[in-house]
Amino acid sequence: MLRGEGERRTGGRLVGDAGLEPLAVRNEFAGARVVGSVLQAGSMRDLHQHFAPPAPVIVPRQLPSGPAWFVNRVAELAELDAVLADASQRVRLVVVSGLGGVGKTGLGLYWAHRVAAAFPDGQLYADLAAFARGGGTDIDDVLSGFLRAFSVRDEWIPDAFAEKRALFRSLVADRRVLIVLDDVADAAQVRALLPGSSDCVVLVTSRHRLTGLVVDGAVPLRLEPLEAARGVELLGRMLSDARVDEEREAAAEIVRQVGGLPLALRVCGARLAQRRRGLGRLAAALTDERRRLSQLSAEGKPVVEAVFDAAYAGLDPRAAALYRGLGAHPGPEFPLDVLTVVTGGTPDDAADVADVLVEANLLEVLGEDRYRFHALVRLHAEALADAGRARPIIAWYLGRARAADHAVLGRRLRLFEEPVEQVFASRRDALAWLERERANLVAAVRAAALLSWDSTVCQFVEALWAFYNDRFHHADEIEVARLGVQAAVRLGDLPFEARARNQLIRARLRAGEDVAAADVRAAYDVARRSGHRRVESAVLETVGLAHRARGDHDAALGAFEEAREINAEQDNPRGIGLQLLHAGIELRLAGRAGASAERLGEALRVMTEIGDELSQGKVRMELGEALIVLGRLPEARAELARALDVMTDGGLPDRQVRALELLARASTDPAEAERFRRAAEVARA
């Protein structure tokens, strides 16, 4: 009798068609396992067997064509090559992740075609997004497709998923196959399709980081947007290098406006090629943030926006709420504290939700507890931002700025005197925070002005005065002060209008601008009309500085003296000391170094009596320069050394540089002078 004929036929077909080991069939009498035809009979005659010829063996070559334009990502290609060269892993698996539109598929296919010859047994490809069904992906269909690619007929494909997966692993065992899984949503999809042999390489692309696979041993490769030069190069590939060279600055601006995102650059290139419009016109159109995403359309479809819409749609409710909330953030990056404000929970809770956005490549980690949106993602989140979400964020920045102001300068004239939270351990810590959040603070003032939160704008202007007075960020200070003047005028607040005008003039003078006398008079007139004598004295000090800028030493000294008298009237010793300091500087500039040293000595006594160490350091530095002019170099070095200590401890690099340069001038030892000059260069850097 015949046994196992069906199994033998199936086995033979799989041997011939798919290269599997033949199926073994048991001899029922002898118990031995044999391969091939099995016949058990007492006697036989006239037996005829007829089989169709075996189907040809097909080597799957499923890779789609690579990108039409590819800017060589040398570092990333080298990392992929390293995975190919490393046969030590049980399964060679690499996860290329990044923001939607960053070029993950393009990189993967470019590399796959480049190394295809290393995989003579086939290259498999599956776009998992294309298999989406009802919000999920049917991996069963993907696996069946891979089996068919190896000529396994439908009737031989098991129904059970586990058996199907086992058959696939048997098929690719001891074969060199490249498997590209594109647009993967989660790690489970990949695990179901992994071979069991290191002869195969699996390349995964995903908008998610798939950290679960990395834990399992996958090599992570995060793809970043193109840097400026490479972005311009991509436009050149699409349009022609000659055309881009004609408007190279405009090309660089286009790259900057879209944050180097390859998808956005391809859209820009297609529009420029189709309409033959100038690069400058497109660059100008992209400057409008409100319309930028809509500009990145093709055939009437919002190509880039659709990518971000899909990523947002995949977020859980808490992550989606954080995404919308951060859309109201005014600046380009943000600390964990802001995320805590948005979520309303603890820092740990906020970090956990942020991790979801990071995993989805919608949020970038800049460092410990600091995050950033890509430029275009920020615009997408901004369009979804919850109404009113900006107010608590801006209020948080204002509260921290006011706390920093108190830590930096302590007691001084403040028109908005409210209790502040003491969150900074030292002046240096406060300055470091102000420096770190500098762009966000300006953006917060700008946002408050656009929302007509005039009182908030004025409070920001006051809170940032001490920072700008020490760190010399002229452009920031000028913009903030101008917004403050406009807000104060709308409020009808004369004392603050005078103060904001005063701060604007000081910022312009520090920036080296020529300030019109009419602007100075206008500030002083508002101060006089306000009836606030302390504000009037502050504006008089600036009047003196404006006279100094024009070289009118006598007028400057007169203004400083008048301001000193008002401070004496108001019993404000710090104000008296500051006017003595300014007068001492003016006397030195007027060529009266002896009188300068005397006046600065008075200022030093006042600042010492009130315990103002920072102001003591500033006075000692000016006194040191006056003593250099007088030729009293040992005294000058002593004063300057103490000034340097104060500026170093206070975290004031600009003033630290000046102290070092003056010490070099005061030194009689050439080698020592050179050391001071070198130290100044280091501090300046």
TrEMBL record:
Pfam families: NB-ARC (PF00931). The keyword Nucleotide-binding does not apply. GO terms for molecular function: ADP binding. TPR repeats lie at residues 537-570. Gene3D superfamilies: P-loop containing nucleotide triphosphate hydrolases (3.40.50.300), Tetratricopeptide repeat domain (1.25.40.10). Keywords: TPR repeat. Residues 88-237 form the NB-ARC domain. The gene is afsR_7. This is Regulatory protein AfsR. InterPro entries: NB-ARC (IPR002182), P-loop_NTPase (IPR027417), TPR-like_helical_dom_sf (IPR011990), TPR_rpt (IPR019734).
